[in-house]
Amino acid sequence: APEAATFDTDPRIASAQAMYDAMLERVPELAAIHNFSSLLPQECNAIHTLHFASADFWAVYDVPDYLDWMTHGKQPGVMNTHKRVLQQLQWKGPKGRWILKSPPNLLLLDEVLETYPDACLVQTHREPARIVASLASMVRAIRRSYYGDEPALTDGKAIARSVLKYFGEALERATKRREDPVMDARFLDIAYRDIVNHPIETLQRIYARFDLPWTNVFETRLRKHITAGRDTGHGKHRYDMNEFGIAELKLDQQFPAYRARFGELLGD
């Protein structure tokens, strides 16, 4: 909510939660895949929808030309729109450092740094086969919440191919862009397994790398958050790699530059 005084009571919170509740009622499996709550953080993809250039649209609608545009085209001004939304939210809202997350931002590295020149960049790494299967599973579940089991829109193998096209290009393009020492110096690389297995220590590494203040009060809040129960996004996201044709995609033979650079960070 954009007003500090009504940050926990704004009526739009209940409206957004009703939308999430209806979606989870239709497809309960989503509850184990992702956190769905109107009081929890949201990804930048939600802001990008206001510029009509968002992975959220791809996750719901199967429009190949749109995915081509998102993958290989240009979306001028998308980060300017992003910044204007953040300015609006913090004008009368809570103040502090923004923590932003959106995997497709790997396709927008120069735009991100042009808009936010003091940004601290953290890239997380996981075996691409796991990335493709996990994302395809989530997209399929989201589409089921809209279309049921409509075969043309919820085919797991077709979704996996589009995930590979989009996020595979993001991995390769970011790896190429990071051959520039100036760009590369902006990054800290983190293994996904470390976030899962050692969240406190991993965050301490991030804060130390970017010279951010770490306090006992913050660590206490962090530990409380990690151990707190959750209505959604709490549990094991289970998916069958065969349902998404992962073996057929031969992902172990793809992304040579990415694997050469970050291979030691990819195992679960």
Question: What's the layout of helices and strands?
Answer:
Elements: H1 11-26, H2 30-33, H3 44-48, H4 55-60, H5 64-72, H6 78-91, H7 109-115, E1 121-125, H8 128-147, H9 151-154, H10 156-177, H11 181-184, E2 187-191, H12 192-197, H13 199-209, H14 216-227, H15 246-249, H16 256-262
Parallel strand pairs: 1-2
Your description of this structure?
This protein is mainly α and 268 residues long. The protein has helices at 11-26, 30-33, 44-48, 55-60, 64-72, 78-91, 109-115, 128-147, 151-154, 156-177, 181-184, 192-197, 199-209, 216-227, 246-249, 256-262, and strands spanning 121-125, 187-191. The relative contact order is 0.14.
User: Total number of helical segments?
Assistant: 16
Strand order of the largest sheet: 1-2
Q: What's the mean pLDDT score?
A: 93
Contiguous uncertain segments of 5+ residues: none
Into which percent range does the helicity of residues fall?
A: 55-70%
Number of strands: 2
Sheet having the most strands: 2 strands, parallel
Strand content: under 5%
**Intertermini distance:** 36 Å
Helix/sheet category: mainly alpha
**Rg, Å, rounded:** 19 Å
Compressed to H and E, one letter per element, the order equals HHHHHHHEHHHHEHHHHH
What shape does the CA trace take? globular
